[in-house]
């Protein structure tokens, strides 16, 4: 099983396709959720989850109003260190305005000085390994440079299409001073705190 093989401290999931009465049960992990509003009665869609090891001091973080993103968030409280925040953020479909992506990220980075925001940004840019740039990618790249945040991407694509491969799953880091590793396994970004 993926969790046994990689032993992640925090698991960030998107597109959980869960309804509010559903949860993921994983031994030794506590979980937090967001659910897509106005789901079809026939097919569940969207949703995010953060699963964090029970032995890591943590709590759920209340998020500000977001324009379009679905997000779950936790605060990691390590003794004698500032709190660190871990978010899962899911960007709306590509037809949405790119400004929603940067607006929501700006709201999230205002919460604290130490953060990792991960998720499917649907933002293509050559800086993180895409073959081309789209409007969302250009907006995110410019925003990151202006805001002093770092965009991390895995070395291989996270989405494969019929005739293309691209990297749309990203980690956005703001002053995250704790040691951590990010790696990619089967289009999953794995976060491990060292």
From TrEMBL:
Classification via Gene3D superfamilies: Endonuclease/exonuclease/phosphatase
Short name of any one Pfam family annotated for the protein: Exo_endo_phos
Coiled-coil regions, chain positions: none
GO molecular function terms attached to this record: catalytic activity
Highest taxon of source: Eukaryota
Residue span(s) of domain Endonuclease/exonuclease/phosphatase: 3-175
Official protein name in the record: Endonuclease/exonuclease/phosphatase domain-containing protein
Organism name: Araneus ventricosus
């Amino acid at each position: 099983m993926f969790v046994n093989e990689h032993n992640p401290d925090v698991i960030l999931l998107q597109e959980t396709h869960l309804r509010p009465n559903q949860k993921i049960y994983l031994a030794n992990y506590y979980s937090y959720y967001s659910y897509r509003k106005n789901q079809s009665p026939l097919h569940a869609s969207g949703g995010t989850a953060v699963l964090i090891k029970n032995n890591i001091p943590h709590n759920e973080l209340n998020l500000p109003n977001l324009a379009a993103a679905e997000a779950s968030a936790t605060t990691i409280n390590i003794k004698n260190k500032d709190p660190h925040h871990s978010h899962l953020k899911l960007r709306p479909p590509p037809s949405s305005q790119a400004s929603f992506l940067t607006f929501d990220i700006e709201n999230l980075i205002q919460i604290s000085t130490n953060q990792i925001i991960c998720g499917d940004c649907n933002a293509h840019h050559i800086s993180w390994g895409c073959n081309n740039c789209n409007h969302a990618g250009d907006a995110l790249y410019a925003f990151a440079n202006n805001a002093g945040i770092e965009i991390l991407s895995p070395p291989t694509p996270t989405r494969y299409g019929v005739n293309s491969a691209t990297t749309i799953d990203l980690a956005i880091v703001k002053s995250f001073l704790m040691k951590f590793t990010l790696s990619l396994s089967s289009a999953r970004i794995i976060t491990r705190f060292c």
